[in-house]
Amino acid sequence: MPSEPLNDNPAPERPPSFDLTTHPWIRVLRPNGTEDELSLREVFHQAPDLVRLVGDLSTQEFALFRLLLAILHDAVDGPRDADDWCELWEADALPCERIDDYLDRHRERFDLLHPETPFFQVAGLHTDKGEHSSLDRIVADVPNGNRFFTMRAHGARRLGFAEAARWLVHAHAFDTSGIKSGAVGDHRVKGGKGYPQGVAWAGNLGGVMVQAADLRESLLLNLMASEYDQIRADEADAPAWRHDPPGPGPLKPVEAAYRPHGVRDLYTWQSRRVRLHFDTDGVYGVLLAYGDRLTPHEHRHRQEPMTGWRRSQAQEKKHKMPLVYMPREHDPARSAWRGLASLITDRVQGSSSDFLRPRLLDWVDWLVTEGFLQDKDKRVRARLVGALYGTQQSVVDEVVDDDVTMALVLLDDRCEGLRQQAVNAVDDAHKAVEILGVLAQDLARAAGNEPAPRRDAARDRGYGQLDGHYRRWLASLDSDTDPDRARERWQHTLRDQIRRIGDELADTAGPAAWEGRVVKTGSGELWLSTPQARSRFRRELARLLPATEPAATN
């Protein structure tokens, strides 16, 4: 019997692949303090045993967290309502079988190197000259031209596929503005360049997410039901990988008018057009161009739940619209607890402008108030993350990362007394620090020095001293706490800390301040010296915070 002929034709080479559903690429923190890298499947399966995600920057963690939320929303097709949400919350694990089936169905769209539908990229994206840029374009810890304050002193020359995937997700969320590469096929390109169109969507936000004891709980607390009427969504809501792959240009106007359809669309919004350049060893270059622009003033407060909002009369006048809310960005000089009112209430006391707290916190408030979250003493962290941009938004100047730990009872509408006292305690701190600033100002004037720098330094010192004390006091509040006695406890601590700093400022003011001098005031001239300044300080502090014995805990 003749033998089978040998096949001299070698099998065709398989195209390169990096499947994000099975390859480790997302960094996580375990309860023992160690870090690990996991695939998408592993993250969902191990979520109950993970503390949180870990990003190369906190903004990257925020972007990756939103990616996981989009997957979870789409895998469960909801949750539709509070009952669906409760079923997920009461289980011991995430619905991993449904998530695995979902990732199997969309596996090709999660391949970072796919020749036709690469994850979060545009296949065949190119410029007239066929060039690409260095990876510094997407690696946010290498600001252009400022390499001295980074671990990448020579720039990001090459990245492994896992790290490249993380920065790719980050670019769609937080990329800077400025001139970018002009992709062939994009009608907005002029002279081979893409001209500034603003930062990527999440870069506009003062990002807020709720974190709990483990990643499973954190994901579920941020997983808003479709029928929750504070956030608008429609049946077409879907993440980027369930839309047709984008071309080099923006969405057509007829499609852009209706999108984003909901949070799944928004969390994976394609703010940029990107193509990674790679070889078998990793990624060595990138083409980064403008994608789909979102403007904050177009009623985005009904779509984006993970930021606070402020009413903007300037934008109302500019766009001739009756009511415009803009994202409320974080102030890096202001600790999160100092803005507690904007997290747990809808209005800031004493402000003429209207503020909306993050709709995400409204959602958690509703879960607590309606009894779906029954452990009101459960501690959660309101995590604040955001990017601040400089030089016409072309560079990232600073990344904000702060949090406030509190019991869920502070989000319960039925416990308004405790919530109000927590806000009043912050107001106490503001007033006490202001009194401290006046003391520093008076001591400087008594010595013949410029008062403003001394006043500002004293205020900064006061807030810094109070930071840990207030956070511990807030975290101690629970459903058994007597609101009035808790406030007394805080006022005792506040008076003690501010008076201690004030006495030190007076004791170290120097001989010139002790001797004093005549200074001009709005009501005439007066003699000002250390004794007079100290006396005024103690009098005002006593008026604000009358001396009492510290109240017992609870």
Characterize the structure shown:
Helices cover 36% and strands 14% of the residues. A hairpin with a 2-residue loop joins strand 7 (272-279) and strand 8 (282-290). The chain is globular and about 95 Å long. The chain has 16 helices and 15 strands. A 3-stranded antiparallel β-sheet has the order 2-1-3. It folds into 2 domains: 26-411, no CATH class; 413-544, Topoisomerase I, Chain A, domain 4, CATH 1.10.132.100. The chain is an alpha+beta fold and 554 residues long.
Spell out the key features of this protein:
three-stranded antiparallel β-sheet, single chain, alpha+beta, Topoisomerase I, Chain A, domain 4, 2 domains, 554 residues
Q: What's the topology here?
A:
Elements: E1 26-29, E2 35-38, H1 40-46, E3 52-53, H2 58-76, H3 82-90, H4 96-105, H5 161-174, E4 180-181, E5 193-194, E6 207-211, H6 215-221, H7 253-256, H8 263-267, E7 272-279, E8 282-290, E9 309-311, H9 313-319, E10 325-327, H10 341-344, E11 355-356, H11 359-369, E12 379-390, E13 395-407, H12 416-447, H13 451-476, H14 483-507, H15 511-515, E14 517-521, E15 524-528, H16 530-544
Antiparallel strand pairs: 1-2, 1-3, 4-5, 6-12, 7-8, 9-10, 9-11, 12-13, 14-15
- The helix fraction, in percent, is 25-40%
Approximate shape: globular
Question: What's the helix count?
Answer: 16
Total count of strands: 15
Question: Biggest sheet, strands in spatial order?
Answer: 2-1-3
Could you tell me the strand content as a percent range?
5-15%
